[in-house]
Amino acid sequence: MDKNLLLQDVLAHLQADLEQATLAALSAHETATHEENVAENKYDTLGLEAAYLASGQARRVEELRQTLITWRQLRPRPFDETQGIELGALVQLAAENGHEQWLFLGPPGASMKLQLADQCIQVLGNTAPLGKLLLGKKPGDEISLPVGSRQQVFEVLAAT
Fold first, then answer.
1. Does the record carry Protein biosynthesis as a key word (predicted)?
2. Could you give the 3-state DSSP secondary structure of residue 151?
3. Residues 36, 54: Cα–Cα separation, whole Å
């Protein structure tokens, strides 16, 4: 699997999310500042509510911008056995029940599922609990992730 194609797919999804969030923020701002939403009395809170929404939407746009900047700086490299799993790694895990999955480890903020060829790949940030556990691991290593009151054990099958 080509990690650079995965990265381009992540960037395209983040860009689309940013564009959608920007439109939502503009719409919320227009609603908050529209003359029909000026409060007529102290109980008329539509304009205030719209302003809170616009503020939240603006924060979301900025978060997406920062995530996009961070992901654009990612340069996936071939797996280095001496370094172990690091940002940009494509990792195959097996759960105790035999279920296998592929993960693409990157910076925070881009949790999504991608389809490459016939394979489903979970994009995971390095600050997610599983992402933290994977850093520095090598094929053959086991990791244990607390899930509720029990531990879920995974084996690293492969890393590229």
1. yes
2. strand
3. 16
- For residue 16, what is the enclosing H or E element? helix 3-33
Question: What is the rounded distance in angstroms from the CA atom of residue 70 to the CA atom of residue 80?
Answer: 22
pLDDT digits (tens, 9 = 90+) for 86-133: 999 999 999 999 999 999 999 998 899 999 888 999 999 999 999 999
Q: CA 59 to CA 102: how far, in whole Å?
A: 31
The CATH architecture to which 90-159 belongs is Roll (3.10)
Distance CA 123, CA 103 (A): 6
8 Å CB contact between 123 and 10: yes
Sheet containing strand 142-147, edge to edge, reads: 112-116, 119-125, 100-106, 90-95, 150-159, 142-147
- H/E stretch holding 113 reads strand 112-116
CB-CB contact of 47 with 32 (8 Å): yes
CA–CA distance, 105 with 113 (Å, rounded to integer) = 12
